[in-house]
Amino acid sequence: MRRTRFDADHCPIARATDLLADWWTPLVLREAFTGTRRFADFEANLDIPKAVLSARLSRLCDEGLLRREPYQDNPVRHEYRLTDKGRALWDVLAAMWRWGTDWCWPAGEGPVIALESRATGQVVRPVVVDEATGERLDIRSIRIGSNPNPHVR
Amino acid sequence: MRRTRFDADHCPIARATDLLADWWTPLVLREAFTGTRRFADFEANLDIPKAVLSARLSRLCDEGLLRREPYQDNPVRHEYRLTDKGRALWDVLAAMWRWGTDWCWPAGEGPVIALESRATGQVVRPVVVDEATGERLDIRSIRIGSNPNPHVR
Question: I need a surface site. Which of A6, A38, B107, B136 has the fewest CB within 10 A?
């Protein structure tokens, strides 16, 4: 159930919110990022009602974050794969992971799981930086200005 | 209205979702990050119903992202300021900003606003990297493992 649409807004956060505030959506995406592709696997891993899962997957396809691909003929069954647009949202989930890890457990406690590098096994701690300078983003040193070139990504 | 709580989950994304999926919350935080502190200003800038705004601000205080501080005595009025926990969520909103900018406008178009450095005026493009290596996060090179030290942030 969606109460308001922010799509008309000029703000990129508002457009992302319009999608992420759909209940369950970030967790469906988390599953996709960790390799889940089939309806029954999403359902089992998330313990989510079928109708809700079906609605979330359909919307993620409509918005171009997932695409449906047949993996079986008779009967036809589909799996759900991330598109480039969907894969790009990993940065948002990674930032959520870091913030949740740092701030959403009581003092002296933390999650029993961590992100780790497949290559080295080292813990990966996501952090947001400016692409040009590599420096941490400090909200106090940033303002919202006009986009010098809104026609280029 | 909240339908399910994910707080019991072990996943940091689930805990962040529990907060961010509250409708309007990311936009209330965006306002706080851009300097809005007073109820009437949040209301005017967001065009949000009073009761909804009041509920969102109360929850953000309860969760420790905002704190209420009196700015006037008679009658007593409060303003809402970001805590360290709230300020840390900027990384998540910055990642949402980038993804929204890159993917939520039609091809050849983009938002008319951009983040820019107060010091240099240069456009700031948030990107998520591994804190230890400074490298971009690629979901395919990361897995979820056990946290070697869940008692340290």
Answer: B107
Contact between chains at B23 and A6 (C-beta distance less than 8 A): no
User: CA of A11, closest CA in chain B: separation in Å?
Assistant: 7
Asked whether residue B147 is domain-assigned, the answer is no
pLDDT in tens, chain B (153 residues): 333 444 346 778 877 877 777 778 888 998 999 899 999 999 998 888 999 999 999 999 999 999 999 988 888 889 999 999 999 999 999 999 999 999 988 888 888 889 999 999 999 999 999 999 999 988 888 888 888 877 766
Q: What is the CATH number of the domain that holds B53?
A: 1.10.10.10
Contacts of A111 in chain B (CB under 8 A): 10-12, 147, 150
Number of domains in chain A: 1
A28 is a domain residue: yes
Test B151 with A109 for CB contact under 8 angstroms.
Answer: yes
Domain boundaries, position B105: 12-141
Q: Is B108 left (phi over 0), alpha (psi -120 to 50) or beta?
A: left
Q: Assign 3-class secondary structure to A56-72.
A: HHHHHHHCCCEEEEEEE
User: pTM surpassing 0.90?
Assistant: no
The ipTM is 0.88
Facing B100 at nearest CB: one of A4, A13, A148? A13
* Domain assignment present for B149: no
Q: Which of B120, B125, B91 is nearest to B110 (CA)?
A: B125
